[in-house]
Amino acid sequence: MALSALLLLGCSDPTTETTPDSTAVTPSEGSGTLAVYANGEEYAWEGMTSKDGWTLSFDNLYVHLSDVTAYQTNPPYEADGSDIEASKSLLLVDSKTVDLTEGNGPVLLGEAEADAGHYNALSWALSPAPDGPAEGHVMVLTGTAEQDGERLDFSIALDQPLAFACGEFIGDERKGILDDAGTADLEATIHLDHLFGTGDAPADSDLNEGALGFDPIAALADNGTVEVTSDGLMDQLSPEDQEKLVGILPNLGHVGEGHCFESTMGDATEP
Predict the structure, then answer these.
(1) What is the pLDDT of residues 66-120, one digit of tens each?
(2) Please, which of 42, 121, 227, 241 could form a disulfide with 71 given CB 3.0 to 4.6 Å?
(3) How do the domains of the chain map onto residue ranges?
């Protein structure tokens, strides 16, 4: 079964979310510096416990992002699969691979001089890295998994290109509001808990019900090591877990807790 099958799915987070402040931002004159970051959240640099009780520690979490573009839209983009209708747009990053385990926070992708205003939409693609440690893959996760005295080394390489069109960042503060001579930032967020689930949530939560967990990956270990690609997973997982994996990938991309809509590569929205 090909992993690229029917990935035309909306991105929805089953966890509780807050709604961004709907207060309009007064258009600004002038320009400033707009930066964009990639974030794997605390899971990337602190590790996590999967829904099935594996303690996961990541040595590297490489992601390759391309065509990272910020937009000013009015009305706000709803991440519903429609085109992003923007009054202004700015390509911030053409192509870059970053390791989301570096440091203890979001990793800078790039920055540029930008017209002032509220950048309330963001699009990007997870595409195969042309070179470097993730060459040929969109994401590579390496690390260790431990449970009940068993320790596994793992390398999981995901190959499915994904294009995300996202609305406004949702989090503790609003992002993307750029004043004249000021600075502002945006964020492309990768939600690892959609893939592995989390021991912090009830077993019957929507998040954990939809997550793959780590047990199906651990079952593929050989002499204490799991080294697998997307195709390898699809060849060896049960039909039920194959279906879960196909459904999970479009939900990896967010803007904080804000929604994204995923489309197959080549269908990314344009202003």
Answers:
(1) 999 999 999 999 999 999 999 999 999 999 999 999 988 999 999 999 999 999 9
(2) 121
(3) 31-263
Per-residue pLDDT tens over the stretch 132-153: 999 999 999 999 999 999 999 9
Sheet holding 253-254, edge to edge: 107-115, 31-39, 183-190, 253-254
Q: What is the pTM of this model?
A: 0.89
Length, in residues, of the chain: 271
The CA-based dihedral angle spanning residues 210, 142, 140, 78, taken in that order and rounded to the nearest 10 degrees: 40
Q: Exposed, middle or buried: residue 131 (CB in 10 Å: 0-12, 13-18, 19+)?
A: exposed
Q: State the amino acid at position 96 in one-letter form.
A: K
Show the 3-state SS of the chain: CCCCCCCCCECCCCCCCCCCCCCCCCCCCCEEEEEEEEECHHHHHHCEECCCCCEEEEEEEEEEEEEEEEEEECCCCCCCCCCCCEEEEEEEEEEEEEECCCCCCCEEEEEEEEECEECCEEEEEECCECCCCCECCCEEEEEEEEECCEEEEEEEEECCCEEEEECCCECCCCCCEECCCCEEEEEEEECCHHHHCCCCCCCCCHHHHHCCCCHHHHCCCECCEEEEEHHHHHHHCCHHHHHHHHHHHHHCEEEECECEEEECCCCCCCC
| Structure token digits, residue 214 | 């780590």
90-126 as b/e: b if 16+ CB within 10 A? bebbeebbbbbbeeeebbbbebeebbbbbbbbbbbbb
Instruction: Give the tokens for residue 200.
Output: 């912090």
